[in-house]
Amino acid sequence: MTAGKIPDGRAVRWGVLATGGIAARFTSDVRELADAEIVAVASRREASAKEFADRFGIPRAYGDWAALVADEDVDVVYVATPHSAHRAAAGLVLAAGKPVLCEKAFTLNAREAGELVSLARERGVFLMEAMWTYCNPVVLRLAELVRDGAIGEIRTVQADFGIQGPFPAGHRLRDPALGGGAVLDLGVYPVSFAHLLLGEPDRVQADALLSPEGVDLNTGMLLGWESGATALLSCSIEARTSATATVTGTTGRIDVPSGFFHADRFVLHRDGAEPEEITAGPAATLHGLQYEAAEVMRCLRAGETESPLVPLDGTLAVMRTLDAVRERVGVRYPVDQGR
User: Fold this and answer.
1) 154-162 sheet: strands from edge to edge
2) 301: part of which helix (H) or strand (E)?
């Protein structure tokens, strides 16, 4: 199957590349969609692929990525490897002409991201970052209210995401070669949230506590825009934060409770009015990853090669910001030598 419209009335057939925790969650969520099925899974180890396939009732399991890509029954591939392998995995799929949904952080740096985007555009193949936040109906409603001026002009965005360690020295989160540190794993969420509301910042400042290996353990970011808006963001792999977000404007404020990146509700505060809680509604599920899958499927059925909800130019902008943060705090990966 190469890039092109998927006919109405036929289920979109997914291949899952990797067998870790996020792949399992995605598989569980996609199975809730009536017009989707997962037909194949691949891992670098055949045993892992077979175990995953047995667990979820997937018909085919492959012990190498190329076999999955060659499967003619696979319409689109979900790349769920660690981000250090995204460039290679997504590049392999795109080169074969198959659509890709690639986990975040999209790649290790903006250069790699640009290579994938260029390849997709040259081949006319669909590519989207799996930034589920951008497809979440509650977050979409929040962004719509902000655009419509519900809280006036944005002045500050605050968001944080931290998990409690400690992680041992041999863990992937401590390995520069694997894109270790808090920024790519966790900081991508508050940065993407700020980008959704304000676009790419004009100024980036940051400070961090680094590990002996040279990855960031705890990072604070201050982003600035010519409009006068600022974003105060943080991420950590040493401390569990509240994972909340607040957007403050000249005439109001929006508070998003813990888990802002897959929000099920938020509270709108407007001058002169009682606080208003806005929720997903009883019909919405709270798992979340099915929303990004549904957006991919909508695009494929429409013959679109990029999603308007998760545009590739936005993904590139976020990667540039993450690069700038790492540069400010002195985190460099071996792959950055090619920049």
Assistant:
1) 203-210, 216-224, 230-236, 154-162, 245-249, 252-256, 265-270, 276-279
2) helix 289-302
Percent share of the chain, pLDDT over 90: 92
Phi-psi sector, 16: left (phi>0), alpha (psi -120 to 50), beta: beta
pLDDT of residue 8: 77
Q: Do the beta carbons of residue 15 and residue 40 sit within 8 Å?
A: yes
Contact 108, 84 (CB under 8 A): yes
For the question of residue 5 being annotated catalytic, the response is: no
Beta strands at 36-42 and 60-62: parallel, antiparallel or unpaired: parallel
Q: Give dist(CA 180, CA 177) in Å, integer.
A: 7
Q: Give residue-wise pLDDT tens across range 253-290.
A: 999 999 999 999 999 999 999 999 999 765 455 468 99
Residue appearing with tokens 């997962």 = 38
Identify the burial level of 338 via C-beta atoms within 10 angstroms of its C-beta, where 0-12 means exposed, 13-18 middle and 19 or more buried.
exposed
Classify strands 154-162 and 230-236 as parallel, antiparallel or unpaired.
parallel
Distance, in Å, from the CA atom of 263 to the CA atom of 256, rounded to the nearest integer, reads 7
Tokens in use for 208? 């961090």
What is the DSSP pairing of strand 12-17 with strand 252-256?
Answer: unpaired
Question: pTM (2 decimals)?
Answer: 0.95
Residue type, 162: G
Question: Is pLDDT at 51 greater than 90 in this prediction?
Answer: yes
> Letter for the amino acid at 4?
G
Average pLDDT over residues 207-219: 97
- Nearest CA to 160 out of 188, 190, 196 is that of 190
Residue 146 and residue 163: Cα distance in Å, rounded? 29
CA–CA distance, 243 with 257 (Å, rounded to integer): 8
Tell the residue number behind the tokens 């029954």, with chain if given: 73
Helix (H) or strand (E) holding 246: strand 245-249
**Which member of 5, 50, 98, 104 is catalytic?**
104
